Amino acid sequence: MKILDVVFVYQMKEETEIRWHSRYHSHGKNEFELHYFIQGNASFLNDRTRFRIEPGTLFLTSPEIHHSIIVQDDDNPLSYYAVLIGTEDSDREIHRLLSIDLKSNRLYHLGTNYRFFFEEIKEKGLSANRALRQSAVHQLISFLYVLSGEEDFHFSDSRNSHIEKALRIMQNNITNNLELEDIAQRLGLSNSYFIRLFQQKMKTTPMKYFMKLKIEAAGAMLTSTDRTLLTIAQDLNFYSEFHFSRVFKQYTGTAPSIYRKQYLQFVDKEPDQ
């Protein structure tokens, strides 16, 4: 098993983005795809079956089966991760894990706090470092075991409701200035308790996580639109283009202009028929 590609699509708004990511397409033999939706509302067309997609849901598509994302609400744009998995005929255990989900044709309700997991899969799975790529593969295999382990497994419960709500607040305010006090107040928690609760679950502080969301959004804009660095900086409410570039490099290790050249997606290119 290997990870062939990982894509993060943030707030799909541009016409070219929608046309590319909503195309009706399939993948080759032994190629499976995971779609993890974190924001927005849409429908997922798998062959001839249409599923309702909501934030925090995951769907798995099988090889050579046509599928498409159908955007329904322009005022609530879609954000999601897509992971393309390649397998060999000899990967019998992997096929067994994947086939459990394919037979049931069901959505999994993971909650939106698996964003970090999929972001890590993206960063490691596309790394030039072989050890990191293998690490991502093993993380994904472990994830598939959890998915197939229980018939009605839910990844989030009432104990995580504060974190789930905090994540939604952050996602909905990517383009704004958001302070720690604002989030804690909306949750009805003290600042100190909210920080401690968030760190226990997400392994980072709330505001570091919020900045990471902004950088993820910036990365998506850089690789799927032709917006200038200044426009992106303004859209995401950074103080200046210089501030945006400095923070982006701090989080990714790469300057925005170089990142764009390395990961540019040609979303305006017509897909092969």
UniProtKB/TrEMBL annotation:
> PANTHER family in the record, alphabetically?
ARAC-FAMILY TRANSCRIPTIONAL REGULATOR, HTH-TYPE TRANSCRIPTIONAL REGULATOR EXSA
- Which organism is this entry from? Oceanispirochaeta crateris
Q: Which InterPro entries match?
A: AraC-bd, Homeodomain-like_sf, HTH-like, HTH_AraC, RmlC-like_jellyroll
**Transcription listed as a keyword:** yes
PROSITE patterns, per the entry? HTH_ARAC_FAMILY_2 (PS01124)
Its recorded name reads AraC family transcriptional regulator
Looking up Pfam families in the UniProt record yields: AraC_binding, HTH_18
Print the organism lineage: Bacteria, Pseudomonadati, Spirochaetota, Spirochaetia, Spirochaetales
* Domain spans labelled HTH araC/xylS-type: 164-262
Any single GO molecular-function term of the entry would be:
sequence-specific DNA binding
SUPFAM superfamilies recorded: Homeodomain-like (SSF46689), Regulatory protein AraC (SSF51215)
Which keywords label this protein? DNA-binding, Transcription, Transcription regulation
